UniProtKB/TrEMBL annotation:
Designated name of the protein: Cyclomaltodextrin glucanotransferase
EC number: 2.4.1.19
ATP-binding listed as a keyword: no
Keywords: Calcium, Glycosidase, Hydrolase, Metal-binding, Signal
Source organism phylogeny: Bacteria, Bacillati, Bacillota, Clostridia, Lachnospirales
A GO term for molecular function: metal ion binding
Highest taxon of the lineage: Bacteria
Span of domain CBM20: 618-726
Family, as annotated: Belongs to the glycosyl hydrolase 13 family.
Obligatory cofactor(s): Ca(2+)
Organism listed in the record: Anaerosporobacter mobilis DSM 15930
EC supergroup of this enzyme: transferase
Length: 726
């Protein structure tokens, strides 16, 4: 096009030569652009090679020990094994998961990711404080070894390669907060919470000469600080500021990533400092960009400021407890209405910067199964799955709930898989809806709009570009509703229910202006109607994953309409090197720019520009966790101490972006008027900082005197202590 324009008029020789030059540059550009860029790794947003983004995936959560025993020879012997006792091992293993992969149990349901129990070696004795074995995987002993009751390294790798060949990703649970129980009154624990590194003993809880653990008694969960540095029910609480522990966790997770793991569910993120976690996460993203989501347990539907902050600032997604509880209240216990549910969808939609990346569910191993909550009403379970699978967020099915398994509290909610029946209604509902997440991008990336609502019925629309999905659910199993006055962005035409009437849904007809002809939504019925656009010429970014990193890391941009010829990507005004490019997935390298938040934009080869996707966080460089501490900082009630400094991670001297409020109530670390905080900051960097006082209305008092300074080490952790300067 450019050469045509330049050749339109033929004036002087100079102009002709200039035109020729442009033609040549253009021709080179074409040749250059057509060179397949790492064609071998080029993939679409729906493929298993897309480990950074799970937007199009449906996760299936497995308690490995309770799923399927594929190899009885690896079962424990002795008192920790008892199939009639839900607190003991039952024999489930990776060979069993591999067998079910091969039998097609997951693919038949459209599941594209498995989240399995923590695979690391756990204690092999009974925890005397609760007479329980480590079948759940949360009592680690050696994060560098496999739990032999689940299988060997080769069993693990076979499971992964089998899954990958079927287009299924593997997510591991990982619990870096603690080892095993070591603290309960005067009780003696046989393994003392000891930590091993590939067989080598590093230290125990009582025998802790290295300072591997925090020693602050049980948490009372009263404050964030108390939750972080105290132990959770006596689980030996790892001290992540200890350089040995920090390095250990960075190396351990790499080992599992090397085995081919595609994602990580991080246990108990509320119980570890955000600073240490961000530094750990940054090391993970620099090693292999995978999808990471944390468990910040929350029993309600209301916003929790600390949880929201973590979801938006930590660099990882969270399990969406607010959404889960809202669905459970409206469709399970009946303690809230569909309007209440929609209000939570709206509120979370504005609280979470990346709402499509939060991981949704209707039940899990720490709460009652949905079937039990819904008084054994199967249709309630089916309808909850319809909402789960068509709402924003990455949906997770808890093993067995698709077979209507029951059970209220732990361990009754972790029973053996009741059956592998591929004819259960829930299995079929999931099997119809899960594949839609791969084919219609409205589910992965779309907006959510309420279209018709009352206390029993919720009809909502998801939309991305001209892709549209409309979901209608009537939770009331004795009243039908006449749906009139419904409008949609579905194009004119008649639509059949994606579930083919499995839950009673029929057709709808959309007339001019998006008006839907009046229809009846029967008692307890639900339906899903959809329109998938053919290829789009307008580029639209749906997601960017991860949303933080350091220059040189790879970032995955997903969406539609990028075209099949490479165009360009910018971070602010800076071009990013493209690694691979398809119509739905682009991989780029974070450019060397100064740290800060950037908007990402895609421009197609034909010059069409996408929406700008804001908020990408470029960190100052490789991160380490530093404990900043200030002594003698006295304050009036209601005033707190914050930290601010000359780097992006410390707010670039902007008091409104200062870190804090700092903690001041942990006896082994710091108690008022000493304040402290663990922060992820760049390694090998000379940092200037100050502490400030901020009251409830945001009034700021700066420390006087000159700035404090610290030069961070290149690896490990550090502590920077200062005295408050009046
Ligand atoms: C949360 C897990 O989901 C729960 O099951 C476990 O017991 C605790 N964290 C401790 O690891
Ligand atoms: C930023 C400065 O660089 C720092 O040194 C000073 O203490 C504060 N602003 C307050 O003036
Ligand atoms: Ca077994
Ligand atoms: Ca902790």
């Amino acid at each position: 096009m450019m050469n045509l324009q330049l050749n339109r008029r033929n004036h002087s020789l100079v102009q002709k030569l200039t035109s020729l030059l442009f033609v040549l540059i253009f021709a080179f550009g074409v040749i250059f652009n057509n060179i397949p860029v790492q064609a071998a790794t080029t993939s679409t947003d729906a493929e298993v090679t897309n480990t950074a983004s799970f937007s199009t995936d449906v996760i299936y959560q497995i308690v490995t020990d309770r799923f399927f025993d594929g190899n009885t020879s690896n079962n424990p012997t002795g008192s920790i094994f008892d199939k009639s006792n839900l607190q003991k091992y039952h024999g489930g293993d990776w060979a069993g998961i591999t067998q079910k992969l091969n039998e097609g149990y997951f693919t038949g349901m459209g599941v594209t990711a498995l989240w399995i129990s923590s695979p690391v070696e756990n204690i092999t004795t009974i925890d005397p404080s609760n007479n329980c074995a480590s079948y759940h995987g949360y009592w680690a002993k050696d994060f560098f070894k496999t739990n032999s009751y689940f299988g060997s390294v080769s069993d693990f790798q076979t499971m992964i390669s089998t899954a990958h060949a079927l287009g299924i990703k593997i997510v591991i649970d990982f619990a870096p907060n603690h080892t095993s129980t070591a603290e309960y009154g005067t009780m003696t624990f046989p393994e003392d919470g000891a930590l091993y590194k590939n067989g080598t003993y590093l230290g125990g809880f009582k025998n802790d000469s290295q300072g591997l653990f925090n020693h602050e008694s049980w948490t009372d969960f009263s404050t964030l600080e108390n939750s972080i540095y105290h132990s959770m029910y006596g689980l030996a609480d790892l001290n992540h500021q200890n350089a040995t522990v920090d390095t250990y966790m960075k190396e351990a997770i790499q080992k599992w990533l090397d085995y081919g793991v595609d994602g990580i569910r991080v246990d108990a993120v509320k119980h570890m400092s955000a600073g240490w976690q961000k530094n750990w996460l940054s090391s993970i993203y620099s090693y292999k960009p995978v999808f990471v989501f944390g468990e910040w347990f929350n029993g309600g539907v209301a916003a929790d400021a600390d949880m929201t902050k973590f979801a938006n600032d930590s660099g990882m997604s969270l399990l969406d407890f607010r959404f889960a509880n809202a669905v459970r209240n409206a469709l399970g216990s009946g303690t809230a209405t569909m309007k209440d549910l929609y209000n939570v969808v709206t509120a979370t939609g504005s609280d979470y910067e990346e709402v499509n990346d939060q991981v949704t569910f209707i039940d899990n191993h720490d709460m009652s199964r949905f079937m039990t909550l819904a008084s054994n009403n199967q249709r309630a379970v089916d309808n909850a799955y319809v909402i789960l699978l068509t709402s924003r967020g990455v949906p997770t099915i808890y093993y067995g709930s698709e077979q209507y398994a029951t059970g209220s509290t732990d361990p009754n909610n972790r029973g053996d898989m009741p059956s592998f029946n591929t004819n259960s209604t829930a299995y079929k509902v999931i099997g119809k809806l899960a594949p839609l997440r791969k084919t219609n991008p409205a589910l992965a990336y779309g907006t959510t709009t309420e279209r018709w609502i009352n206390n029993d019925v919720m009809i909502y629309e998801r939309q991305f570009g001209s892709n549209v999905v409309v979901t209608a659910v009537n939770r009331n199993q004795s009243s039908s509703y006449s749906i009139s006055g419904l409008y949609t962005n579905l194009p004119q035409g008649t639509y059949t229910d994606v579930m083919q009437g499995t839950l009673g849904g029929g057709n709808i007809t959309v007339t001019s202006g998006g008006a839907v002809n009046t229809f009846t939504l029967g008692a307890g019925q639900s339906a899903v109607w959809q329109y998938t656009a053919s290829s789009s010429t307008t580029p639209l970014i749906g997601n960017v994953d991860p949303m933080m990193g350091v220059a040189g890391n790879t970032v995955t941009i997903t969406g539609r309409g990028f075209g099949n010829t490479q165009g360009s990507v910018s971070f602010g005004t800076n071009a990013a090197q493209v690694v691979s490019w398809t119509d739905s997935t682009i991989k780029v390298i974070i450019p060397s720019v100064s740290a800060g938040k950037y908007a990402i934009k895609v421009t197609t080869s034909t010059g069409s520009a996408s929406n700008s996707y804001s908020g990408f966080e470029v960190l100052s460089g490789k991160q380490i966790s530093v404990r900043f501490k200030v002594n003698n900082a006295t304050t009036n009630y209601g005033t707190n101490i914050y930290l601010v400094g000359n780097i992006f991670e410390l707010g670039n001297w902007d008091a409104s972006k200062a870190i804090g409020p700092l903690f001041n109530n942990t006896s082994t670390i710091g108690v008022y008027p000493t304040w402290f905080f663990d922060v992820s900051v760049p390694a090998g960097t000379a940092i200037q900082y100050k502490f400030i006082k901020k009251d409830a209305s945001g009034n700021v008092v700066w420390e006087s005197g000159s700035n404090h300074t610290v030069t961070t080490p290149n690896t490990g952790t550090a502590e920077a202590t200062a005295n408050w300067q009046n």
